[in-house]
Amino acid sequence: MASYSALDPCVHCGFCLPACPTYLVTGDEGHSPRGRIVLMRSLERGEISAHDPALLEHLDGCLGCRGCEPVCPSGVGYGQGLEAAREQIFQARGLPPTARAVLGVFRYRLLWRPLFALARLLRATRLPHLLSGNSRLHFGMGMLAASAEQRGSGAAGRRGRESTPESPLTTNQPPSRPAAPLPHPTVALFRGCVMDALFSHVHAATRRTLEVNGYRVVDIPGQVCCGALHEHAGDAGAARTLASANVNALADGADFIVVNSAGCGALLKDYGRLLNSPAARSMAAKIRDVSELLAERGPRSGAALDLAVAYDAPCHLQHAQRVHEAPLALLSAVPSLRLQLLPGSDRCCGSAGIYSVLQPRMARAVLDSKIGSFAAARPRPDLIVTGNPGCLMQIGAGLRAAGLPIGVAHPVELLDLSYQKAGFYDSDR
Ligand code: SF4
Ligand code: SF4
Fold first, then answer.
1. What's the pLDDT at 180?
2. CA dist., res. 363 & res. 342, Å (int)
3. Which ligand is nearest to the CA of 232?
4. Which of 4, 29, 34 has most ligand 1 atoms within 8 Å of its beta carbon, as the pocket-test mutant?
5. What is the phi/psi pair of residue 259, to 5°?
6. Residue 288's pLDDT is what?
7. Kind and range of the H or E run holding 251
8. What's the gap in Å between 40 CA and the centre of ligand 1?
9. Number of Cα atoms under 13 Å in the Cβ half of residue 359
10. Does ligand 1 lie within 6 Å of residue 18's CB atom?
């Protein structure tokens, strides 16, 4: 079981409060890290039960974004404490019906693959693009629309249509080839569930850009969902089952295992703690975010892209994995890109795994301040780039609901487009 001991250093100073998105929205101490730590410790000591309504309201309301960790002068491991509390609550009362249904689907490929296939069919009709909006149903449509390769209808889209009939980020998906005269470590692509089902274009861009930078990318079968959604909900048993399957499939297959979803990468790097086995620790040591592997090689510069781009840092990349510079290094390999870091770019978007499904009102309230920052930006960005599927869909849907002509993309998609324009893939056509 996860441990509460990481909460021990808390001195209740409150320095973390201004970094907490739910505290900023509510102004409620119970919705702050400090307030939640008091509740968690009361649960640990048995002073309140796992069924206590205030405990459930405030812990269920936590995004798990860990934005409170880097600002804490005492080094409190809030995320570890939260996992311990959620595991204790899960053992006492199980999951709410909606969470049980959603997590049950992600546990089995036989369930999520056909459901996501239907989602792709719906996306291909472009109805989600037309129906994007503010209500819960229309926001969901916006999330699905935002997962498509064609990104947005803004200046980026207009510019793209001048040069291609599709979108600025639509490539012809040419076969990839290594061009850099460097050693060729092998890299296994972690496919995941949502990334594999809705963001296969990002997987393709990941493979191509890694190969241009001297990596040899291999496919390894037998992978399943990483288990992060289950772990964050307190269902550590399901998370361990999924993690064990991934360790069996991936542990010995390559020099590195590359991940392009920040949420998956954070748990994959933590498999050693989750499973407490040498094989899991060995696999966890090989996990790299795609931006880390590319940054280790420079990465190689491509052709210029005339785009204004705002980078939005996924919580599980910056706070959980402590990866800050690599995505910026990746983007700096695209000449002429006008990179912006807007106010609140380091703050959670409200997606947080299945949080936006379980806590839609708070998720939207948290998102709204970020969308407001995009709307106020001058010059206005053409694209928001971020390296996590939930963030891409949440931010993309929020932009659509607000009627802002700004697209969304994974950073590696921009590098891939830059490489395509530079002709790095041409000789394979
Ligand atoms: S978690 Fe850290 S910053 Fe927040 S109240 Fe405790 S010691 Fe202070
Ligand atoms: S994890 Fe995020 S939402 Fe939860 S207390 Fe920390 S900053 Fe607030």
1. 52
2. 20
3. 2
4. 34
5. -130, 135
6. 98
7. none
8. 14
9. 22
10. no
Write out residues with Cβ below 6 Å of ligand 2: 19-22, 33, 36, 62-68, 78
Residue length, the chain?
Answer: 429
Positive or negative: CA dihedral 146, 149, 155, 158:
negative
Write the residue with the smallest CA distance to atom 8 of ligand 1: 13
Nearest CA, atom 6, ligand 1: 10
Q: Which mean pLDDT values do the consecutive 10-residue runs of the chain (429 residues) have?
A: 89 97 96 98 96 95 96 96 95 92 91 94 96 94 91 39 38 45 85 95 97 95 94 94 96 93 97 96 97 96 96 96 97 96 95 91 95 94 97 97 96 97 80
Please state the φ and ψ torsions of residue 62, each to the nearest 5 degrees: -80, 130
Dihedrals phi, psi of 308, to nearest 5 degrees: -95, 125
DSSP string, 316-381: IIIIIS---HHHHHHHHTSTT-EEE--TTTTS--S-TTTHHHHSHHHHHHHHHHHHHHHHH-SSPP
101 contacts: CB under 8 Å, gap ≥ 6: none
- Reported as type and span, the H/E element at residue 70 is none
The CA-CA-CA angle for residues 140, 62, 24, to 5°, reads: 90
Ligand 2 centroid from CA 403, angstroms: 29
Ligand 1 contacts CB of residue 13 (under 6 A): yes
CA 418 to chain centroid: 23
CB of 74 closer than 6 angstroms to any ligand 1 atom: yes
Task: State the pLDDT at residue 172.
Answer: 42
Instruction: State how far the Cα of 20 lies from the Cα of 251, in Å rounded to an integer.
Output: 36
Ligand 1 touching residue 34 (CB < 6 A): yes
Strand partners, 257: 188, 287
Tokens 């100073």 -> residue: 13
Residue with tokens 């590319």: 294
Q: Output the CA torsion sign for 201, 292, 194, 68.
A: negative
- Tokens 């491991």 belong to which residue? 77
